[in-house]
Amino acid sequence: MTKLAAVSTENLAAAAKTSEEWDSFLRQKYDPASVAEEVPKPKDAFRDYESALTEQPKVSQFYAENHEKQTLSFVLSQKAKYASLDKLTMGIWEAMEKLNALVDDSDPDTSLTQIEHCLQAAEAARRDGQPRWMVLTCLIHDLGKVLFFLGEPQWAVVGDTFPVGCRWSDKIVYPDFFARNLDREKERLQTPLGIYEEHCGLDRVHMSYGHDEYLATVVKGYLPEEAVYIIRYHSFYSAHREGEYRHLMDERDERLMEWVRKFNPYDLYSKSDDAPKIEDLKPYYQELIAEYFPEKIKW
Ligand SMILES: [Fe+2]
Ligand SMILES: [Fe+2]
């Protein structure tokens, strides 16, 4: 069993910063009202990537690297690397505590730790009377970020996800950054269908690799299919928010994508003034976790 990689504190802090900036970038783009007080920026401020490079350099540099390096062959190698689930043995709550080490000390605006983000999303779903599996999904949806502790670089952990092996939608954020992706040279990968068949279903499509795909693999045997689906596609913004890639989706996707859309507001929901009280909530969530998961699972 692999031990957690010795990742330096600086690397974790940098990972936390990117992760936090990326979350806040998504909130600005898709739920501007939620960040109106936090960051007073117009809705379309980051459409123009030239100015984004100077205005929000960390996020745009992150995307430049992500779009360049997430090739079909990279995705296939990551899938092969993590399919065996032989890296860690760890409980769900343990993974949440692990992620809490991803705190960015250098950023005074960092509002929530990872565990608080998870709890806040779950609490909002609970208040809305969502089914228990949905509350649990909100709680654990980002746990795939333990990839940071396995030594993966930021561009291979976070960022919104997109299909590889076919042409990129121009609704993906910063589409111009795909110019340096080597798959651009391969004609077969540059048609709308690429290596896929029409309406083949997204589970046959290779998505850019990150915390979504990884966690979906980890929890597959334990949660209902809707939950696994939400986890796998929660960062697939060009599909669930922009309506792209329907030519690859089948009827099952059309049905299940609705759950991703129900989930998304809980993911974007964030208010720093009501940080959840972790110790008070812990008993409730430990019971909920135990309904679906054994004490430890393989990662
Ligand atoms: Fe996420
Ligand atoms: Fe999230």
TrEMBL record:
Substrate binds at R47, D104, D105, S106, K145, G159, D160, H234, S235. GO terms for cellular component: cytoplasm. It is an enzyme of class 1 (oxidoreductase). Fe cation binds at H117, H141, D142, H211, H234, D267. Belongs to the myo-inositol oxygenase family. PANTHER family: INOSITOL OXYGENASE (PTHR12588:SF0), MYOINOSITOL OXYGENASE (PTHR12588). This is Inositol oxygenase.
